[in-house]
Write a structure and sequence with these properties.
Distance between the termini of chain A: 59 Å
GO molecular function (chains A, B): GTP binding; GTP cyclohydrolase II activity
Order of helices and strands of chain A: HEHHHEHEEHHHEEEHHEHHHHEHEHH
Strand order of the largest sheet of chain A: 2-3-6-8-7-9-10
Helix content of chain A: 25-40%
Mean pLDDT of chain A: 91
Largest sheet of chain A: 7 strands, mixed
Organism (chains A, B): Rhodovastum atsumiense
Radius of gyration of chain A: 23 Å
Pfam families (chains A, B): GTP_CH_N, GTP_cyclohydro2
Oligomer: homodimer
Shape of chain A: globular
EC number (chains A, B): 3.5.4.25
Number of helices of chain A: 17
Protein name (chains A, B): GTP cyclohydrolase II
Largest interface: A-B, 152 and 153 residues
Number of strands of chain A: 10
Low-confidence stretches of chain A: 1-12
Chain lengths: ~425, ~425
C-alpha cells in the first residue's frame, strides 16, 4: 500500500492499493481449469471490480472500453458497485457447446462459455458471484446497398427467409470480447509464458504489473477491441458435418468499410463475402462473417495514414513492388495482426470444414488450416469489384503469395501505380 | 525491482523493472508545458519504449493497438528497438497552428502538435529523441453508394472538384490517437486530478500504477480507440471566420455503419452528414465528419447486444418509453461516451462556428456550445432515411430531449414498437 503524492496538495482519504487483487478478507474466486468440458469444472471468469479479491483474471471487462467505464466512475457518473441486471439478455440463438471447446489448446483467446454464463454458472451467480458475459448473441436485419445491387444484377434471388426483395438479410450476430488464457497464448506463439507476460507488461509501458507478480492468475482480459460475427442461415446447423460453410474473416478497415476509400479492396471484398454467405445460407448452409477490430493490420490508423503518405510520395510514386517495404520502414513489421489467434472463433462456432473461404490471404488461410480446419475452396474478389486506386495493393499481395491464379512478375509489379497525393 | 516467480520453472535472465520510467542513467525527457503557444516551450510527447528513462508520459503509442505491438515483440516478430523511419510521412495538407491550440484548457485529450512532430520538434529529433506522430493526415477518394444515389436523385451535383460524376468524393483524412493531459481532463469533469488518476487506475483493475506513483507525469496515452476526421473541401479554409462549416460528430456503430443493421439510424445519418458536407464544400465551405471509436455509446458491443436482447424480450416488446432504461439496467448508465472531451478535435481544426451541425443529439450539441463554439443550424435526419426497426430509437431520443420540432408524448412513446427477436 502506498499513499500517493497528491498532485494538487490534497491527500486522498484512503490509501490506494497497488494491486487489484488484495488477498485478505474476501472470498477467493473459483479456480479456472481451462478447457474442461464441464463448465462447473472449468470455472467462471471473474473479472469484475465490485469484489476485487474474488477476481481470477488480470484486467477487466469490455476490452478497451474499460477505460471509459473507469473515467465514468472517476467523473462520478457511474456507481462503481453497479452490477448488471442480466434479465432477458441471454443469447437469441444457442451456440454450442461444441467438442472444440474442450480440445486442448484449441481456443485460447476467448471464453467459449462467455455467452452462456447465466446458464453455465447459474449456481455461482445465485451464490452472489459477479460473473459477466464476455459474448453476446442477438438477431438483426441488415441492409447493404451492395446486396440490393446483387439482387438487381440477378446474382442473388430473394427467398423471404434469408433475404427479402427489399434487400434486407436476416442475421444472427455475436459480439466477442477478448479473454486470453496466457499459457495457451504462449504455446500458440511457441514462447514461454514468462516471456509473454514480460513482453505484454514491458512493451505496453508497464500495463498491469500483475502480469508479472501474479503468475497464478492465468487469464488476461486485454484492453483491445474484440470481434463481431454475422451468421447467415440457421445457426442450429453449426457443428453438423454436413452443413456447408461459407466464411470471410475480415479485419477492420474503417476507411473502406465505412467510408468507401478506394485505396484498398476491404469493403468490396466484405460485401462479396456477404453475398457468398447469403447464397450459401439459401442453399441450406451457414454463412459466417468474422469482423476483427484490427485497424490497419493492427498497427492502428495513424500508422496506416503515415504509410499511405510514404507510399504516395516515394520515388516513382505508389508502386506494388514497394507496398510492404513502406509499412516496415514506419512500423518495423508489415503486419501485426497475429493471425495465430484468429481461428479460435471458428472453433468456437464448431467449424471443422470451410467449403468456401472468401479470402485470398495466405496469412489467414495458413493459420486456419494449421489449426485443423479443412478449406475446400478459396474465393477471390471478382476483378470488377477492385476500386481504382487499389491495384497497387492487389498486385503487391498477389506477389507476396496471396492466393491467386496469376502471380505478377517484377515488370508487372513495377507497373501498377496508385494515385498521387495531390490528385 | 523484482524477480518474478517463473510459471514454467524458468527464471528470466534479467530482473523486471516494475516501472516503465527507471530514473537512472538515461536522459530525462523535456518537460511539458501544456498549452504553450511555441512548440519548443510546449515540449514533445515522448511515449516510446526504445529509451524508457526518457519518457514523459504514462502509456504508449497506438492506443489499444499497443497491446498487439507488445504481443508482436513477445512473439519475437518485432524488434523492440525499432524506430520508425518517418521519411515522406508528413501531413498531406497543413492543419494549424490555430489560436485554440494555446487557449488554456481548450484541448486536453489530443496533442495539437501530433501531426507536425517532424517540423515542430525537428531539433529534438536531430538530437536523437524518439518522438512519434500521434496524428496523421492523408488524402483519399471515397465512394459511398448513398452519395451515388444522392446524385441520381438530383440532391447532389458533380463538380469534378469535390465530387465527380462516378460518385467519388475527394477528402483529406486524419487519424488521431488519444493523448490525455491529466490536469486538464480532471478540470473538464470538475474533479481533482488525484480522483481522476485513482479512478483510472482502480477501475481498470490496476492498469498503469504510474498513474498513482508518478504524479509528475501529466500525460497519459490511454489504450482506447481514437478518432478519424474526414474533411471535404480545401482544408486551408479552416480557421478563417468567413468559412462556412458543416459538421457531423459520429460515434462508431459497427452494426449500422458497416453492415447496415436496421435497428438504428447511424449509417443513414452519417451518409446524410456526408451529403451535407459535400454540398457545403461545393459552396466554398468545409465539411467535417468526426468519427469517434465509441462503439455502443462507449459501452462496447457485448453490452450493446445484451441490451438489444433485453429490449426485444421485455414485457410489451421493444418500446420507446423503455429504451434508455434497459441500457441502464445492464450497464449502470445509459451512455458512457463522455462527450465532454469531444469538442477538442473541433478546436484543433480551428473551428469557432458550425453553420450546419448534422445531429439531433443534445449530448453532442451542449458540450460543443459549452466549449465556446457557435452553432447556427441543426440538421435532423430526413424522415425517409429512418430504417424500419429504428423508430423506437428515434422516438425515445426525441422524448429525451434530442433536438426536434416534435416531442412525442407518452401515448406516442408507448406506440413505437420494434421487431421481435425471432422475426
Amino acid at each position: 500500500m502506498l499513499t500517493p503524492r497528491g498532485t494538487n496538495g490534497r491527500r486522498p482519504t484512503r490509501p490506494i492499493v497497488l494491486t487489484s487483487h488484495p488477498r485478505t478478507g474476501t472470498p477467493q474466486a473459483p479456480p479456472i481449469t481451462w478447457g474442461a468440458a464441464d463448465p462447473a469444472s472449468r470455472g467462471p471468469v471473474v473479472a469484475t471490480l465490485t469484489s476485487p479479491g474474488a477476481r481470477n483474471a488480470v484486467g477487466t471487462h469490455a476490452g478497451s472500453y474499460s477505460l471509459y467505464r473507469a473515467l465514468a466512475v472517476a467523473a462520478g457518473q457511474l456507481d462503481p458497485g453497479h452490477r448488471p441486471d442480466l434479465t432477458n439478455t441471454a443469447p437469441a440463438a444457442p451456440i454450442g457447446p461444441f467438442p472444440q471447446w474442450s480440445e486442448p489448446g484449441r481456443i485460447v483467446s476467448l471464453d467459449p462459455w462467455g455467452h452462456m454464463v447465466g446458464e453455465a454458472f447459474a449456481g455461482r451467480l445465485a451464490e452472489g458471484w459477479d460473473i459477466r458475459p464476455t459474448i453476446a448473441v442477438t438477431r438483426a436485419h441488415i441492409h447493404m446497398p451492395e446486396i440490393t445491387e446483387a439482387i438487381r444484377a440477378g446474382r442473388l434471388a430473394p427467398d423471404d427467409e434469408v433475404l427479402n426483395a427489399a434487400g434486407d438479410a436476416r442475421v444472427t450476430k455475436v459480439a466477442i470480447e477478448p479473454v486470453w488464457w496466457l499459457p495457451g497464448i504462449a504455446d500458440r506463439f511457441g514462447i514461454d509464458e514468462t516471456t509473454l507476460r514480460r513482453g505484454l507488461f514491458e512493451q505496453t509501458g508497464g500495463m498491469f504489473p500483475e502480469l508479472i507478480t501474479r503468475p497464478d492468475l492465468q487469464l488476461f482480459l486485454p484492453p483491445i477491441g474484440g470481434a463481431s460475427v454475422y451468421l447467415f442461415g440457421d445457426p442450429a446447423r453449426l457443428g453438423r458435418p454436413q452443413t456447408r460453410i461459407a466464411c470471410r474473416v475480415h479485419d477492420e478497415c474503417n476507411g473502406s468499410d465505412v467510408f468507401g476509400s478506394d485505396i484498398c479492396t476491404c469493403r468490396p471484398y466484405l460485401a462479396h463475402g456477404i453475398e457468398v454467405c447469403i447464397e450459401t445460407a439459401q442453399q441450406g448452409g451457414v454463412g459466417v462473417i468474422v469482423y476483427n477490430r484490427k485497424e490497419g493490420r493492427a498497427l492502428g490508423e495513424v500508422t496506416k495514414f503515415l504509410v499511405y503518405n510514404a507510399r504516395k510520395r516515394q520515388q516513382g510514386g505508389d508502386r506494388a513492388d514497394a507496398y510492404f517495404t513502406r509499412t516496415e520502414c514506419v512500423a518495423g513489421v508489415a503486419d501485426m495482426r497475429l493471425q495465430e489467434l484468429m481461428p479460435d472463433v471458428l472453433h468456437w462456432l464448431g467449424i471443422t470444414r470451410i467449403d468456401r473461404l472468401v479470402s485470398m490471404s495466405n496469412m489467414k488461410f495458413e493459420p486456419i488450416v494449421a489449426s485443423g480446419i479443412t478449406v475446400l475452396e478459396r474465393v477471390p474478389i471478382p476483378d470488377d469489384l477492385i476500386p481504382a486506386d487499389a491495384s497497387v495493393e492487389m498486385d503487391a499481395k498477389r506477389a507476396a503469395g496471396y492466393f491467386t491464379a496469376h502471380v505478377p512478375d517484377a515488370a508487372e509489379l513495377a507497373q501498377a501505380k496508385g494515385r498521387e497525393l495531390g490528385a
